[in-house]
Amino acid sequence: MKKIQMVDLKSQYLKIKEDVDRGIQEVIDTTSFVKGGKVVEFQQELEKYLGVKHVIPTGNGTDALQIALMGLGLQRGDEVITPTFTFIATAEVVALLGLTPVVVDVDPETFNMSVEAVRKAITPKTKAIVPVHLFGQCADMQALMDLAKEHNLYVVEDACQSIGSKYIFDDGRVCQSGCIGNIGCTSFFPSKNLGCYGDGGAIFTNDDDLAARMRAIANHGMVVRYHHDLIGVNSRLDSIQAAVLQAKLPHLDEYIAARQSAAAYYDKAFAGNPHITTPYRDPKSTHVFHQYTLKLSGVDRNAVQAQLKEKGIPAMIYYPVPLHLQKAYQDPRYKQGDFPVAEELCATVLSLPMHTELDEEQLKYITDAVLEAVNQ
Ligand SMILES: *Cc1c(COP(=O)(O)O)cnc(C)c1O
């Protein structure tokens, strides 16, 4: 049996090696390393795939989020609502910009931001909501967009884990995740569903003015060369990463299908086990399984993880600590017990290996080992 990894990028690479190698070689041959033709080509290919007007490539997903908030022109003290159960970057950029992160609890089934909690957290200072499409399934965008409209708020989607996931509105309209709010952000970190071989990210928007502002901000606030109209940053996708992404984008749907099929295998194997809750499927969203995350009950989650490790099966805890209990984010407004769903998830979730190259032999080995560990 092939060694089991959380993510198997090597096997994936071997299947597209020729395309990747050729793309990288072309970048080297043309020495067009930054702002090269491949970045523009990839940008346009991604715009087409997503059906969005503007894709703005960035250096990574965290920069994408930061540039998005800068593009909205928020002021110090403005409040931005984020879920407390997410990767730190979502709130980090809010804090870095001197904005006030307001955290809310999540839904126990979807793990995504609770719309009721967002409603309660809105104050006159609230300017934006940042839903995270956690583990690859869209947050309740219909309700969040309605709420944002009602209170005149911006919506910046953190789609770093959800590229290719589709949201279905009540009226049947289908939208790609990241292309629903005013702005969407994604990451091309290697382990993400569309990952490059280093760092990369992108911003999505259908708003021409916002796109122009954010494109300038990502480039030192420059519109005309050496004339700086805005305070910006330096954040760009490099051409070699664009070449890798160009080779991978045509396979994204097939990668998603492979993840969904591994998830279906897991679901079936764990069905009915009293200790395991398998990932909830929201009928309003497709799930692209950036992670396949179980909730365990009546067992010692950490002991299960250790037992799997002994058998050569990596399993990860995403995430062990919610934002409001992180040292750097201590805030007198929040204390332990304030967000019980997120706190409970941090204590009970376990993510299993999930990637495009899992085979049946590996899946059987993993599911047998998980069942043995929880049934003891
Ligand atoms: C990965 C990730 C980010 C940050 O992306 P980087 O490219 O690593 O900066 C932000 N938010 C979420 C939810 C993520 O998973």
Biggest sheet architecture? 7 strands, mixed
Strand content: 5-15%
In angstroms, what is the radius of gyration? 21 Å
Q: In what order do the strands lie side by side in the largest sheet?
A: 1-9-8-5-4-2-3
Helix content: 25-40%
3D shape: globular
Structural class: alpha/beta
User: CA-to-CA gap between the ends?
Assistant: 25 Å
Uncertain segments are none
Annotation field: number of helices: 12
The number of distinct β-strands equals: 14
Mean pLDDT: 97
Distinct ligands, ions and cofactors found in the model: pyridoxal-5'-phosphate
N-to-C SSE string, H for helix and E for strand: HHEHEHEHEHEEEEEHEEHHEEHHEH
Please describe what this structure looks like:
The protein has helices at residues 9-30, 37-50, 61-71, 89-96, 115-121, 141-151, 208-217, 239-248, 252-270, 301-310, 340-348, 360-374; strands at residues 54-58, 79-83, 100-104, 126-129, 154-158, 166-168, 174-176, 183-187, 201-205, 222-224, 227-228, 276-277, 292-296, 349-352. The protein is 39% helix and 15% strand. It is of the alpha/beta class and 376 residues long. The model has no long low-confidence stretch (mean pLDDT 97). The protein is globular, with a radius of gyration of 21 Å. The protein is built from twelve helices and 14 strands. Strand 2, helix 4 (89-96) and strand 3 (100-104) form a beta-alpha-beta unit. The protein binds pyridoxal-5'-phosphate. Pyridoxal-5'-phosphate is lined by residues 60-62, 86-87, 89-90, 132, 158, 160-161, 187, 189, 199, 201. Keywords: Aminotransferase, Pyridoxal phosphate, Transferase.
